[in-house]
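Re: the request from the purification team.
They wanted to know what the chain is likely to look like in 3D before they choose a buffer screen. I agreed to run a prediction and write the result into the notebook, where they can find it.
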Amino acid sequence: MLDREDLRKFITDLAVVHGRVILSSGAEADYYLDLRRICLHHASAPLVGRVMLDLISDWDCAAVGGLTLGADPVAAAMMHASAKTDRPVDAFVVRKAGKAHGLQRRIEGPDISGRRVVAVEDTSTTGSSVLTAVDALREAGAEVVGVAVIVDRGAGDAVRAAGLPYRAAFTLTDLGLSR
């Protein structure tokens, strides 16, 4: 529980940026959650990995990842944290579109075909980014066992409506924020 509380403090101290913003969903908000500020921070990134692994500890999966850029540092933190456990996971990156050169892969990293994976994201408001990743993962032959985010901004209903389990390490209420 200490890791979770430490991570919550990093989020509220470093990642909550107050001011009027337009979110990727198109919605307006009075604050922005810049979770890259904690996912790429030397002290909080290990916490991200441990907290997110704990969040999905009862899900059987071999790899984690999602749509670039929000998911990349989350998946990397989880991969690194898992390397010291008896349940290591690989990480992967889902491109927004397929590559037109090289191997022309949409999903980078170890092959996920036939593997159980969890789609991750730093934060999600509508679920559209993570569900785009889910579609690409299924197209590549992965079995998506669930979706996990650091902070839920409201995407849970959309993800569950798509037939997937959904978990968030933190809600807006946990962080003292409103929708």
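For the purification team: The first strand starts at residue 16 and ends at 22.
Please add any questions underneath this entry.
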